[in-house]
Specification:
Length: 509
């Protein structure tokens, strides 16, 4: 009876070792496992008849690259397959130097591992025969071929990784559309790439993005300067409607369905939940160049990743809108109790935005202060009516309760899981520049800059508008108080900016 084939799996993650060992044991292999390169060498020395080794790269004690080098020194015909979740050009070059025969990207499909193993074992048998029966030159040629195949495969992996990174860093639909066409130009070396939204009802193609090379001159036909010619658009519409599959025309010259300027053409639909959402199309106008099967594979991969990114953006935007709706529902509930709060919050957001603009804040900061301004008093929903709506002067104990609302509001926003910087503004908009504010007694620049701006806007409106317990103060008195408290209660820079824009603020009714 033949002995089972012996494998060694080296990985510092116990779960991966256990799953891999269980799979190959069921397939009739004899499996050894190690959690690092040092343990693997001990097993190799004890079990000289190992057929193949699968190893991770990043491991403690001894990593996979050093292990591969040690194995090459001990037994140069023992095949080593590297598995990694973070492929890089540096690691790839190093593995080639160390005699690694294949390169798998995590998460590794177990069936793929077995197919790789079978191929390697067949190749190893041939390789051993070559060592015995063929001349040294034949062996060198075979090794060179294997290395070239590995380099080509790693280049493919790097391309796919670049595409995935591009789409993972894009957070808008428009950005995704642009990434599709830019990736087509960069990765496929196309002369022009278009992306069209496709309507399954009307069959219309609506262009939303296009790109052409910037680093090389392309003789761009006039017919493709703004959009695809109608003749070709009709062909794409028909193909998507009837097949909704990728299409490759390596040699499009002379094809009656193509524009005369097109030498090579391909297109790939972008599907969301099996429905065609859009179409990416790529063109070569330069004679002598043509798209290949690998190019259409890449293009299909690009549209697949774009589809996933669009779904993620749509989901995020839906969650974001729902959170806003929930928060403003809280504000609405508070308005029912205290109508002043909603009107006050709207004005504070407006005034704070004016001050922030005057101080040169960025667009992102203006968005932050607008959201925080609308929600800065949301914590008052946690204050009892008899305190919040009390018409007379508050007792010291009641005022302490009122002082809890910034922290309550920050907690509400925090529990929504978004807007960390808005949380800081809401929590600290009652801090004082001299450190005598609440809830944390921060002082000076320790108070977030946008919270310091919010403090001026909030106090101005609080004094200049009617409150449940008093009438609004005269505008001249309000401005006098703000000026006198510059440097103590308020940030002097924010106060100066406020006085530069205060004439634009109308008196409240």
């Amino acid at each position: 009876m033949d002995e089972p084939i012996k494998l060694l799996v080296v990985d510092d993650e116990e779960g991966i070792r256990d799953v891999t060992e269980g799979y190959f044991l069921r397939k009739g292999y004899e499996v050894f496992t190690a959690e690092n390169g040092a343990q693997a060498l001990d097993i190799i020395n004890e079990e000289p008849r190992l057929a193949c080794i699968f190893t991770d790269i990043n491991m403690p004690v001894m990593d996979g690259l050093e292990l591969a080098e040690r194995i090459r020194q001990i037994e140069s015909t023992l095949p080593v397959v590297v598995m990694t979740g973070y492929p890089s050009l540096e690691n790839t070059i190093q593995t080639l130097k160390n005699g690694v025969v294949d390169f798998l990207i995590k998460p590794v499909n177990l069936e793929q591992m077995e197919l790789t193993l079978r191929r390697i074992l067949r190749e190893r048998e041939l390789f051993v025969e070559n060592l015995i029966l063929k001349e040294e030159m034949a062996r060198q040629a075979r090794l060179k071929e294997l290395n070239e195949q590995l380099v080509e495969r790693v280049e493919e992996v790097n391309t796919l990784n670049r595409v995935m990174e591009d789409f993972s860093s894009t957070d808008s639909s428009h950005g995704i559309f642009n990434k599709v066409v830019e990736s087509g130009v960069e990765e496929l070396h196309a002369d022009k790439v278009f992306f069209h939204i496709f309507s399954e009802k009307t069959l219309d193609l609506i262009q939303v993005a296009s790109a052409c090379p910037k680093e090389r001159d392309v003789q761009m036909p006039d017919a493709f300067s703004s959009d695809i010619p109608e003749q070709m658009k009709s062909y794409i519409q028909t193909h998507v409607t009837n097949a909704s599959t990728p299409c490759l025309m390596p040699d499009a010259a002379g094809n009656s369905q193509m524009d005369a300027a097109v030498q090579s053409f391909m297109m790939a639909p972008l599907k969301i939940r099996e429905n065609v959402f859009g179409v990416a199309s790529a063109f070569v106008f330069e004679k002598g160049r043509a798209f290949t099967e690998k190019d259409i594979y890449y293009m299909s991969f690009i549209t697949q990743k774009a589809a996933a990114a669009i779904e993620n953006v749509a989901l995020y935007e839906n969650i974001y809108d729902n959170l806003f709706a929930t928060l403003f529902a809280f504000v609405t509930a508070l308005e029912v109790r205290d109508f002043y709060t909603r009107r006050h919050s709207t004005r504070v957001a407006e005034y704070a935005g004016m001050i922030a603009t005057e101080m040169g804040c960025s667009e992102e900061e203006l968005d932050l202060i607008n959201v925080a301004g609308m929600l800065h008093d949301i914590g008052k929903i946690g204050i009892r009516d008899d305190i919040l709506l009390k018409p007379g002067r508050l007792t010291d104990e009641e005022f302490e309760k009122i002082k809890e609302h910034p922290a309550i509001g920050a907690d509400i926003i925090t529990n929504m899981g978004l807007w960390d910087r808005e949380v800081d503004i809401i929590r600290h908009h009652h801090e004082r520049f001299d450190g005598n504010g609440y809830p944390d007694g921060l002082a000076g620049n320790a108070i977030p800059r946008l919270a310091r701006i919010m403090s001026v806007a909030d106090c101005f409106d609080a004094m200049a508008s009617n409150r449940p317990y008093r009438k609004r103060m005269e505008r001249t008195l309000v401005l006098k108080i703000i000026r006198e408290n510059s440097g103590t209660q308020f940030d002097p820079e924010a106060v100066d900016a406020f006085f530069r824009i205060v004439d634009q603020i109308k008196e409240t009714e």
